[in-house]
TrEMBL record, chain A:
This is Molybdenum transport system permease. InterPro entries: MetI-like, MetI-like_sf, ModB_ABC. It comes from the Bacteria. GO terms for molecular function: molybdate ion transmembrane transporter activity. Keywords: Cell inner membrane, Cell membrane, Membrane, Molybdenum, Transmembrane, Transmembrane helix, Transport. The keyword Secreted does not apply. Part of the binding-protein-dependent transport system for molybdenum; probably responsible for the translocation of the substrate across the membrane. GO terms for cellular component: plasma membrane. Belongs to the binding-protein-dependent transport system permease family. CysTW subfamily. Gene3D superfamilies: MetI-like. The lineage of its organism: Bacteria, Pseudomonadati, Pseudomonadota, Alphaproteobacteria, Hyphomicrobiales. Residues 18-221 form the ABC transmembrane type-1 domain. Its main location: membrane.
UniProtKB/TrEMBL annotation, chain B:
Residues 1-231 form the ABC transporter domain. Belongs to the ABC transporter superfamily. It comes from Hansschlegelia quercus. Residues 291-356 form the Mop domain. SMART domains: AAA (SM00382). Keywords: ATP-binding, Cell inner membrane, Cell membrane, Membrane, Molybdenum, Nucleotide-binding, Translocase, Transport. InterPro entries: AAA+_ATPase (IPR003593), ABC_transporter-like_ATP-bd (IPR003439), ABC_transporter-like_CS (IPR017871), Mo/tungstate-bd_C_term_dom (IPR008995), ModC_ABC_ATP-bd (IPR011868), Molybdenum_import_ModC (IPR050334), Mop_domain (IPR004606), P-loop_NTPase (IPR027417). This is Molybdenum ABC transporter ATP-binding protein. GO terms for cellular component: membrane. It comes from the Bacteria. One of its GO terms (molecular function) is ATP hydrolysis activity. Pfam families: ABC_tran (PF00005), TOBE (PF03459).
Length: 236, 356
């Protein structure tokens, strides 16, 4: 990677921003995936009071200014925040001004997109197949893992990639929540922003812009190919 | 022995069925809308009846009064659905083993034996999508058998297949149901299938059991067409005994404001009875007939007209409080100008009315 980076004329700082971005986006989306599946299941299948409210809450990060999301995260997950304090006490998990915080912000911002895609694919799963599985002895979890989720896999994947792409580009909430610390929280967008604010940084910024575009495109193409393979596997 | 006694209501329709399924094949015969699907779903545990009880070999699977409702997976009733419902993301082999892997304790026939009996050995590594309709149903039957069921439920397994595929799969079914010593409930709308596969027959119409017993006895009791393989078009109507003519041996029953005369002395005044009017026994006239032997002349309004592909048309007549069905020729339909909204007189010979 260093050699390729050198060929592209990327310095160690830019390289670290790229690495960090990939790490933050991957961890952020993968860690929120189970929650997204649970909430998508509740929204697609559940009948309970407050469903509309939950639907609205899930979509909030999509419509609120990212700065607001970031500030709320700071209040809740900062070292003195109730959740941040509890998580540090119980699991030694610290978010504020760490890359983990950037991952949390990225995951939260991609969350609505992920839930939406997964929910749609869950709603498209044929319930009659689930009934058939139940008559064959599968319990609720058995039906979920053997039938529902495999059949919803293309949508699951689409949600994952959408959220990943969104996480790669996340800027406002991240910088508000965990600032812009080189090597810790300076992701690709933050690095580009920093370079544009630095005299003579334009050329380097442009290179990173190219990298950002390439990464997003690669993610989309990869998901498209995977989705197609899964679709043919499911259809047989 | 599978014991079923359930009621389930939706809107105007009420399913109210009670019967027993001993070891061997019991067919449930009914037209579409007779309540067959609800019955299947209730026994399998996929829908909850309003009232009643379902028991299998002494174990209660459902009891509304005692609030017992076992989930499908605990009922151990193998279901073969009309649309086969194979899992598209699994191979035939994985489909077949789906139930077996989840019920290791259950006694199920040997895999090879089932595969051989159903002739699906060559399909094991294929995907459901690439199978024909008949092959899919055979795999679905195998899958249900291998799940170690204590009873089998067939929900119109041949209804979606063409005549050729039906002929291909019926021999397999015949062999199979003769070999397995389980209560088998075979739901169908085709009398021919029931005759071929079942020892006992339950005839369901309008949500009720109108006949049950050994196949031919039930066929006769339900007044089914002797030659045709379908249930005759008929209307079942609730009536109340209002008059008894002991001299002539007739009973007058009120339907709305009309009185229908039925042969035989039925119950006492005020008793409820259900009457069955076969559509082919109901004639329509534009004027009330003078000096006719037909005792029952019921004025009404045509609700709907359905032209069949053959020479017949089916007409529904609202006689105030109840709906009769009449089967007439398309020629009569056109010559009399019968259409929805038209006033007509429904003529029913007393001897043609039976109690349901």
């Amino acid at each position: 990677m260093e050699a390729a980076a050198a060929a592209l004329g990327l310095g160690p700082e830019e390289l670290s921003a790229i690495r960090l971005s990939l790490l933050v986006a991957s961890v952020g989306t993968l860690a929120t995936l189970p929650f997204a599946i649970a909430i998508a299941l509740a929204l697609a299948r559940g009948r309970f009071p407050g469903k509309t409210l939950l639907d609205g809450l899930v979509h909030l990060p999509l419509v609120m200014p990212p700065v607001v999301t970031g500030y709320l995260l700071l209040l809740a997950f900062g070292r003195r925040g109730p959740l941040g304090h509890a998580l540090e006490a119980c699991c030694g998990l610290v978010f504020s001004f760490r890359w983990t915080g950037a991952a949390l912000a990225a995951g939260i911002m991609g969350f609505p997109l992920m839930v939406r895609a997964i929910r749609l694919s869950l709603e498209a799963v044929d319930r009659r197949l689930e009934d058939a599985a139940a008559t064959l002895g599968a319990g609720r979890l058995g039906v979920l893992f053997a039938v529902t989720l495999p059949l919803a896999l293309p949508g699951l994947l689409a949600g994952l990639v959408l959220a990943f792409a969104k996480a790669l580009g996340e800027f406002g909430a991240t910088i508000t929540f965990v600032s812009n610390i080189p090597g810790e929280t300076r992701t690709l967008p933050a690095a580009i922003y920093t370079l544009t604010q630095t005299p003579g940084g334009d050329a380097a910024a442009l290179k990173l812009v190219g990298v950002a575009i390439a990464l997003s495109l690669a993610a989309l193409i990869a998901s498209e190919m995977l989705a197609r393979r899964i679709a043919t596997r499911i259809a047989g | 022995m599978l014991d079923v006694a359930i009621t389930r209501r939706f809107g105007d329709f009420q399913l109210d069925a009670a019967f027993e399924v001993p070891v061997g094949v019991t067919a449930v015969l009914g037209r579409s809308g007779a309540g067959k699907s609800t019955l299947v779903a209730s026994v399998a545990g996929l829908t909850r009846p309003d009232q009643g009880r379902v028991a299998l070999g002494g174990e209660t699977l459902f009891d509304a009064a005692r609030r017992i409702d076992l989930p499908p997976r605990k009922r151990r009733i193998g279901v073969v659905f009309q649309d086969s419902r194979l899992f598209p993301h699994f191979s035939v082999r994985t489909n077949l083993l789906f139930g077996r892997r989840r019920r290791k304790e259950a006694v199920a026939p040997a895999f090879e034996e089932v595969v051989d009996t159903l002739g699906i050995g060559a399909l094991l590594d294929r995907r459901p999508r690439s199978l024909s309709g008949g092959e899919r149903q055979r795999v679905a039957i195998g899958r249900a058998l291998l799940s170690g069921p204590r009873a089998l439920l067939f929900d119109e397994p041949l209804a979606a297949l063409d005549a050729e595929r039906k002929a291909e799969i019926l021999p397999f079914l015949e062999t199979l149901v003769r070999e397995i010593a389980l209560p088998v409930l075979y739901v169908t709308h085709a009398l021919e299938e029931a005759r071929r596969l079942a020892e006992r027959l339950v005839v369901l119409d309008g949500g009720r059991v109108i006949a049950a017993g050994p196949v031919e006895e039930a066929v006769a009791a339900a007044g089914l067409a002797s030659a045709g393989d379908r249930l005759l078009d008929a209307a079942t109507i609730e009536a109340v005994v209002v008059e008894r003519d002991e001299a002539y041996g007739l009973t007058g029953l009120a339907i709305g404001q009309h009185v229908v005369w039925v042969p035989g002395l039925i119950g006492e005044r005020g008793d409820a009875a259900r009457l069955r009017f076969l559509a082919r026994d109901v004639a329509l006239a534009l004027d009330p007939p003078q000096r006719s032997s037909v005792r029952n002349v019921l004025p009404g309004v045509i609700r709907g007209v359905k032209r069949g592909t053959g020479p017949y048309a089916s007409i529904t007549v609202d006689i105030g409080g109840a709906v009769l069905r009449a089967e007439v020729t398309r020629r009569a339909l056109d010559e009399l100008g019968l259409a929805p909204g038209k006033m007509v007189y429904a003529l029913v010979k007393s001897v043609a009315v039976s109690r349901a």
